Amino acid sequence: MRRLILDAALHLFRTKGYEGVNMRNIAEAIEYSAATLYLYYKDKNELYFALQFEAAAAKRDHLLPAMEVQDPMERLIEFGRRYIDFGFKHPDLYDLLFITKAPMEHIENQECWALGIATHTFFEETVQACIDQRYFKSTDAATIAYTLWCHAHGMVSLFIRERMRMYPEDQRQALAAKSFEMIIKMAESL
Amino acid sequence: MRRLILDAALHLFRTKGYEGVNMRNIAEAIEYSAATLYLYYKDKNELYFALQFEAAAAKRDHLLPAMEVQDPMERLIEFGRRYIDFGFKHPDLYDLLFITKAPMEHIENQECWALGIATHTFFEETVQACIDQRYFKSTDAATIAYTLWCHAHGMVSLFIRERMRMYPEDQRQALAAKSFEMIIKMAESL
Amino acid sequence: MRRLILDAALHLFRTKGYEGVNMRNIAEAIEYSAATLYLYYKDKNELYFALQFEAAAAKRDHLLPAMEVQDPMERLIEFGRRYIDFGFKHPDLYDLLFITKAPMEHIENQECWALGIATHTFFEETVQACIDQRYFKSTDAATIAYTLWCHAHGMVSLFIRERMRMYPEDQRQALAAKSFEMIIKMAESL
Amino acid sequence: MRRLILDAALHLFRTKGYEGVNMRNIAEAIEYSAATLYLYYKDKNELYFALQFEAAAAKRDHLLPAMEVQDPMERLIEFGRRYIDFGFKHPDLYDLLFITKAPMEHIENQECWALGIATHTFFEETVQACIDQRYFKSTDAATIAYTLWCHAHGMVSLFIRERMRMYPEDQRQALAAKSFEMIIKMAESL
DNA sequence: CATGAATGAGAGTTCATTCAT
DNA sequence: GATGAATGAACTCTCATTCAT
């Protein structure tokens, strides 16, 4: 049942955006009454937290294949590619995870936060592995990881929040792809 | 008076976030009636546009000194430094300009959009100047500019929207500084 | 419940006039919250449409007995008598149907408009039947019907909108009755 | 100055209809501040009363030429023709005088009411004159006058409040003209 | 387990009106 | 005489939430 609710909510996020999601809409989507939602979630916030966890899980699943790549550098690249891919393909989920301001208040104790931490740790470890295998001369794994993350997040979030209007719409994805290639090149000089 | 309203609105943005800003709140903040706001702004949208213009102007002013640096590479660096500095110092304004979702509908014909375009153009021209003076081997000014922008925006927006919780609070700014140094280094290899 | 709302709304129309009717007033009248109204009617317009339909149905019901009179001339007279009677007895409904300005915008596609058309057609057909049976020499059924309607509507609407103040209040109905007799006489000369 | 205000208000009535008239609009139209209106009229009601008087005067002026026709029957006809003409040409003023519900509360003591009475008396006297000169066999001047008035008012008010939708728009005036001819004929049988 | 029915609080907005200047 | 500035009260409408059944 919670699944049903979450799926409906996510679908609404996807199709109508953040503003289009409210208790009534969700209830209608699953053809239950609004009151029913409160049997499964204490309030709107709790539902949104669950949604964020949902998004975190979806993201982890999306990244999973990258984690199994053997060579750390290839893994790093695949990881980045998939991260960006996730953002472009699921802007609503990405938004929820990395941009939305609303229901972050209590997020720290949430499982979804744990998931995020784990992924981030894995990412830093991959960078460290690259360092260990001399892909980078620099030894500051944390900063490298952070730098790469910033670039990726910048790309996705500028796209999602529609701040790329100065670029023709049909060239935005291509530009992002080129930029991704570029940052890899740049990283190799580290 | 418009100043008063805008300042109050910006302050509300800063403290309560987008959702916390509404006509009545703003009115209360300046200790006027809600109706009064409508004497100075046609409606909520118009007030928001003014707010966005405000932010755009503030950003331009903040970047201005960088524009006068002679050497293009130094100019680029100073530009970036000031861009990030603006974001960290005025998270509410930056948020409004580059993250907030709401009132972008008609923004394209607004002066504030023109301001943004101008700045972005100037940024790309600076990159081009660097290329012309052989600071970069790569000749793809657009992609270089975009890449640097993504990185900077990523840093600022992760910070503003509080997605840096995995880093101790007192180390976030330092990390950003290190990352900025790093991206410069990386760029020099281009 | 819809009944409750409509009755309250009609009563308000009756006592306070069009301007006095608003969602809050209606809600107060039935001792419910304003929000409740929106459970039964999408918005103010929809409620008004329902009100107009209500009025149209009531009028049709009021006229119904006249429609079964065999002789066309007697039918015509009974029709007129009942039309006027309806107006005097249910000024609020009549007002809504034939005087109120407000929510006519979309009325044409409404069932209530269809009802009105049907009644009007029936009326013209009755006039035509009178012509066919030589009650009138004139053969212009449309104009005859329209003329009689104008007179009846004039009587009712002058009464409803209180423009008969020059006649003592207790004589108004009698005057109307006499005028009705007179117009019949006049019609017989046609 | 009162002239200026009234003219502006009337013009607004004419162009935007009842709903389009409010203190701000009037003030803007005469390029004065809203507060200024209150120097000349205590409140909105008082201004509306003045407006009604204005309308009454305009109507009297419109009818004036008819009053000078010698033959009472011709006078009666001309009177009717001009009455209807006034309604069709100045729907807003007619509306104000004979349909609008709003500010009638205190109307009885108003001069505009006196004007109306005078006109109505004159009308009845004309009918009486027709009776005296054997144009009618009936001797009930009051009922005859009332009956004719009802017809005329019915025509105008059905037109003004757009209840003639069942007749093609371009035929409405013609139908009214035919009906006017018809009522005259009918009256002659009295 | 599910909901129909209801609502309080609050959103944006408009308007007649006031009053110090 | 005129007004800029201000407002209280009103409007329509939405939403998260509750609770008896």
Concise structural overview:
4 copies of one chain form a homotetramer. Chain A is mostly helical and 190 residues long.
Q: What average pLDDT do the residues of chain A reach?
A: 90
Number of helices of chain A: 9
User: Greatest interface and its residue counts?
Assistant: A-B, 45 and 45 residues
Q: What structural class should be given to the helix and strand makeup of chain A?
A: mainly alpha
Q: How is the quaternary structure best described?
A: homotetramer
What's the N-to-C terminus distance of chain A? 50 Å
CATH class of the largest domain in chain A: Mainly Alpha
Tell me the domain tally of chain A: 2
Got a strand count of chain A? Answer: 0
The CATH architecture of the largest domain in chain A can be given as Orthogonal Bundle
CATH topology of the largest domain in chain A: Tetracycline Repressor, domain 2
Helix content of chain A: over 70%
What order do the helices and strands of chain A follow?
A: HHHHHHHHH
User: Low-confidence spans of chain A: pLDDT under 50, at least 5 residues?
Assistant: none
Strand content of chain A: under 5%
Any idea what the shape of chain A is? globular
**C-alpha Rg of chain A (nearest Å):** 19 Å
**Main β sheet profile of chain A:** none
Name of the CATH superfamily of the largest domain in chain A: Tetracycline Repressor, domain 2
